[in-house]
Amino acid sequence: MAPGSAQLPGYRIRWMRPEDAEAASGLSQAVFDLPWTREHFVTELHRPLARAWVVEDTTTGEVVGFLVLWLVADQAEIATVAVAPDHRRRGLARALMDRALREACAQGARQVDLEVRADNQAALALYHSLGFQVTGRRRGYYYTPRGPTDALLMRRPCRASNGG
Ligand SMILES: CC(C)(COP(=O)(O)OP(=O)(O)OC[C@H]1O[C@@H](n2cnc3c(N)ncnc32)[C@H](O)[C@@H]1OP(=O)(O)O)[C@@H](O)C(=O)NCCC(=O)NCCS
């Protein structure tokens, strides 16, 4: 269990298992325009370079959040992260990110990268609060029914974390 989990009564963070893939996919479909499928999550669980966690509601056993991290040599990337709408603003995404940052830096990553829609205020606030800084912009990168939106590239060096 993540050290921070003691401050999240009613929840626990644990490694994702194959049987979580269906729930993770359902949540992904509920919150993303380009969601990951069940097969996508299962594939990630078999990739040696991927790490995946879920947040479990300990009362219901329901998966209410997930994060997938990719580790390639000294590079790390947050591939996807989400928390179910009814469980937001309780520190769950922060706890998932803390867990992933610790893992990435402990495994030798020099920094952790991610990509976020430029209009995703909640995610931007989360990442800024964790020390991520914008390193680039891909114009019109995301194309959704609402039209094209820029992607922001963000990075946090490991030396600033407790894992590096
Ligand atoms: C972004 C997301 C993962 C945040 O999950 P969460 O569990 O609600 O986040 P936390 O409770 O851990 O919030 C941590 C901090 O992030 C910031 N934050 C989170 N949601 C916010 C919001 N809606 N507005 C402003 N700031 C927000 C705040 O600084 C917050 O700290 P605070 O609550 O003490 O003010 C969640 O909104 C989500 O799943 N969104 C849809 C999927 C998504 O956009 N994923 C990221 C793709 S790059």
Keywords:
164 residues, single chain, globular, 27% helix, Aminopeptidase, alpha+beta, seven-stranded mixed beta sheet, 4 helices, binds coenzyme A
Tell me what you see in this structure:
The protein contains 4 helices and 7 strands. The chain has 164 residues and is an alpha+beta fold. The protein has one domain (3-160): Aminopeptidase. The protein has a 7-stranded mixed beta sheet, sandwiched between helices. The two termini are 20 Å apart. The model has no long low-confidence stretch (mean pLDDT 93). Bound molecules: coenzyme A (COA). Coenzyme A is lined by residues 31, 81-83, 88-94, 116, 120-123, 125-126, 129.
Q: How would you summarize the topology of this molecule?
A:
Elements: E1 11-15, H1 21-31, H2 38-46, E2 50-57, E3 63-72, E4 75-83, H3 92-106, E5 111-117, H4 121-129, E6 133-144, E7 147-157
Parallel strand pairs: 4-5
Antiparallel strand pairs: 1-2, 2-3, 3-4, 5-7, 6-7
Shape: globular
Helices, by number, come to 4
The CATH C-level name is: Alpha Beta
Give the amount of beta strand, in percent: 35-45%
User: How far is the N terminus from the C terminus?
Assistant: 20 Å
Number of domains: 1
What's this, in brief?
The chain is an alpha+beta fold. It has one domain: 3-Layer(aba) Sandwich (Aminopeptidase).
